[in-house]
User: What shape does this take?
Amino acid sequence: MSDRTPPGDRIPRHVAIIMDGNGRWAEARGESRSAGHRAGVEAVRGVIRAAHDLGIEYLTLYAFSLENWNRPREEVVELMRLLEHYIDVQLQEVIDRGIRLRVIGRLDRLTPRLREKVVAAVESAKDNREMTLCIALSYGARAEIVDAARQLMREAEQGKLSPDDLDEKGFSACLYAPDVPDPDLLIRTGGEARVSNFLLWQIAYAELLLSDVMWPDFGKEDLEAAVADFQARERRFGMTSAQVRLGGDGSRST
Assistant: This one.
């Protein structure tokens, strides 16, 4: 590891990344947006390796949003082709590293063939326990919240749930991946400063890190630097510094 590698303590359990900047990276080099997306796929491989080596337990990558379906058809087709290529060619490395795969989003928007490949990929890695890689695909946080609300409404109509009994834990259980803990650290690359409809419920207390690095250039050292920045922060969760030091309830935290 480089001399910027953070120490082993306080590694964020779950890191979520908005991978932004592929198009601008390509345009700055006089290349097509497709070239930027291809370079972005290579960056994904490196960051997965780095996260695994750091001991991060969960890594969620924002691969394709619901809004992305509105992009030019040629660009959408290329992105789907790259996803299929990743599954066919690069996924084996993820499996060999013992990484479990989860995919969240409205997958019914995918072609039947691609949807079958996604399902098969998830199944092939289901018993892995080294790390969980979660891909947000055809994903929107508002849509996820609406889908959860619809499920709860159906349960209420069937008499399985009383509205007065619903709490945050019960609502969270209806989200796409209720077994995945909330992100500790949210990274956005590409120099933008917005969350873009990504994990709106789950990032309520996530630490935010905005990087000017375009996604194709974001690599191991950038992830290590982001983790080191996270380790230097004091997470308060709405409490004062003194409460954090005392564990929130007056007991000394460890």
Residues 73-96 form the longest helix (24 residues).
